[in-house]
Amino acid sequence: MSYGVNNDTKNETIGKVDWVLVLIYLALVLIGWFSIFSAKYDEMHPSIFDMSQVYGKQLVWIGVALLLGFIVLLLNAKLFKPFALVFYFLVLFALVAVLVYGKATKGATSWIDLGGGIKFQPSEFAKMATALAVAYYLDGNDVKLENRRSRLITYAFIIAPMLLVLLQNDTGSAIVFVSFIFVLYREGLPYGGFLMVCGVLAALIFVLTLVWTQKVMYIVLGSLFLLCLLFYILTKKRGIGKMITAFVFMFVMVFSVHFVFYNVLQDHQRVRVEVLLGMKEDPKGAGYNVHQSKIAIGSGGFWGKGFLQGTQTKYDFVPEQHTDFIFCTVGEEGGFKGTFVVVLLYVAMLLRIIYLAERQKSTFARVYGYGIAGIIFMHFAINIGMTIGLMPVIGIPLPFLSYGGSSLMAFTIMLAVFLKLDAYNHTRL
Fold first, then answer.
1. Computed from CA positions of residues 380, 385, 388, 391, in that sequence, does the dihedral angle turn out positive or negative?
2. How far apart are CA 36 and CA 241, in angstroms?
3. CA distance 29 to 426
4. Are 28 and 121 within one domain?
5. How many domains is the chain built from?
6. Span 80-92, pLDDT tens digits
């Protein structure tokens, strides 16, 4: 299907942009900007427009992101599909370049220093590039996920950037690529529901094996029973061969958990998992961030302490509060009502994207829509989960709220591309 628009219909497609999604985006960006101002407020620099402070710099990034998003909306929609693979391979090249020339920050080599205090993080754009590449491939005439070759090629598109990001020691960003299982499930991946359940069960087995070291065989037998039951319920087929394959995978996983935990994970990652699972108490060390974050959110109560009135925020008790832990600023100053509004906005954004994706006439637009919905959901769920102590701290920003130019620009362009595709398709309904 062609995605182009004639010159005389460009204004029409701009007019057909889904303004509900645009308004949700703008609301989140504004909440993020004021939260960053509150988190890093300096009485010597009281103006939110002070460019010497991070809140002033964030305004610049907001302006750049909005400009780039607007430019995307002016582009010919025909460009997105044919240039999807070009963009994908350029991003892969950038990820390789990071491994060679990257600058290490907080244990992860994820940044390329462009000079002048400006750093670029290719992994933020790798997620969008993967969504475009997967959408491009699945839109092919002869591509069916029921076919093994098609599945393997699709997996390769997802795994390649994921491994490169993992080599940068950026575990958080690498985990986000798992979200593409939702896309594949929507597009008819055989036993897709079963695979997602297996993923959840694998995570549960990982936790149980670490906590109940002396009860490994009980875990193995329990896994076998659950797999058989769930496979039958979800597929209505016995499929003994596939159940045995899944069980062997789980069996191998159970007996490799300790090796991976003690030989693959880095020391700080291992300690964070131990603190999360209650295997170790470390409120002044690895658990400090989460401990202070929970205090900040809890102290906000229902109504919150008010803008610029948060004591945990004001006295900088929570490290990285303007980046990965921005949500605790919302919780302390906005209280339950503030966090409820933010969560509601994210849920509304995700539901709106899925609704728009389902009305697309092309596989490319639909798959891309589901791809970005999955990416945003993973960031949202993991970030909030780690700020309230439900997940280990793995360093992942909250979309549109956390400070950072690369993240904001990547998510804005990601959303703008989808808005453009939807606007063009809407003119053809």
1. negative
2. 53
3. 26
4. yes
5. 2
6. 999 999 999 999 9
